């Protein structure tokens, strides 16, 4: 008989077990510098000489890091719970402040990198924030491993950059394999920016 695979969160699922990382000390500063680089990459207006230098230095960084590329769940990105966005550049820099069966609350800011137009956030960034919150809510509520079947966002006001934002999500109801989640994105004073609803469906055996 084969040994159970300890990398699987649930032997019926193909999703790897989530294991928080203890990142090396410089990892957080590395990620923050990368975030600043992203902010600059989308806003600088420089000469070709500057872009040539930036291109060459970026190529050096790629050369430095490429040998260390690792499979999902091995490196500290996305698993560093003490870092904004769990240390993942994909995730906007939000910190989870509350994580329990009642709700999951995270606080953070959107930055220049997240600009849509007219000085405010790109609408496509908000579903990412909601989806991540829904995933956390499923974990926190100890629901079975699930994937997002749908996600609906109502944009109530434009979302500002460089202003503290709070997202709070909770389980609305459970129907068999289905967990319905609702969440609200607000400013610190409670101003509602967006609200969302999502359906997370419990995976069946063999579903990726
Ligand atoms: C140490 C601890 C710290 C933890 C700290 C955690 C940190 C870590 C956080 C990470 C957070 C990332 C969270 C990302 C979460 C994703 O974003 S997952 C990626 C995006 N989602 C996907 O790719 C899903 C793709 N779709 C699928 O795989 C399949 O369609 C699904 C969703 C599994 C469902 O397929 P299925 O099993 O064939 O489902 P099916 O039998 O058709 O439907 C089941 C039920 O759901 C309903 N349903 C299905 N789809 C829909 C729909 N779109 N609309 C309405 N109803 C639907 C059906 O009607 C049916 O209802 P009932 O008849 O049972 O009443």
From TrEMBL:
EC numbers for this chain: 3.1.2.2
Official protein name in the record: Acyl-coenzyme A thioesterase THEM4
Region named Disordered: 1-22
Major subcellular site: membrane
Any single Pfam family the record assigns to this protein: 4HBT
CC annotations in GO: cytoplasm; membrane
Lineage start: Bacteria, Bacillati, Actinomycetota, Actinomycetes, Mycobacteriales
Annotated catalysed reactions: (5Z,8Z,11Z,14Z)-eicosatetraenoyl-CoA + H2O = (5Z,8Z,11Z,14Z)-eicosatetraenoate + CoA + H(+); dodecanoyl-CoA + H2O = dodecanoate + CoA + H(+); tetradecanoyl-CoA + H2O = tetradecanoate + CoA + H(+); decanoyl-CoA + H2O = decanoate + CoA + H(+)
């Amino acid at each position: 008989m084969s040994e159970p695979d300890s990398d699987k969160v649930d032997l019926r699922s193909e999703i790897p077990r989530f294991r928080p990382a203890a990142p090396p000390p410089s990892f957080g500063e590395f990620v923050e510098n990368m975030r600043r680089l992203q902010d600059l990459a989308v806003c600088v207006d420089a000469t070709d000489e500057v872009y040539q230098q930036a291109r060459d230095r970026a190529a050096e960084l790629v050369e430095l890091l490429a040998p260390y590329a690792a499979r999902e769940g091995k490196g500290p990105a996305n698993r560093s719970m003490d870092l904004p966005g769990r240390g993942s550049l994909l995730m906007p820099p939000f910190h989870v402040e509350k994580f329990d069966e009642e709700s999951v609350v995270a606080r953070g800011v959107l930055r220049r990198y997240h600009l849509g137009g007219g000085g405010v956030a790109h609408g496509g960034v908000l579903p990412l924030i909601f989806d991540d919150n829904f995933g956390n809510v499923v974990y926190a509520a100890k629901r079975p491993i699930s994937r997002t079947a749908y996600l609906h966002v109502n944009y109530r006001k434009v979302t500002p950059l460089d202003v503290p934002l709070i997202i709070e999500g909770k389980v609305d109801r459970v129907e068999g394999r289905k967990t319905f989640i609702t969440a609200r994105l607000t400013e610190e004073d409670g101003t509602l920016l967006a609200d969302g609803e999502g359906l997370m469906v419990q995976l069946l055996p063999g579903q990726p």
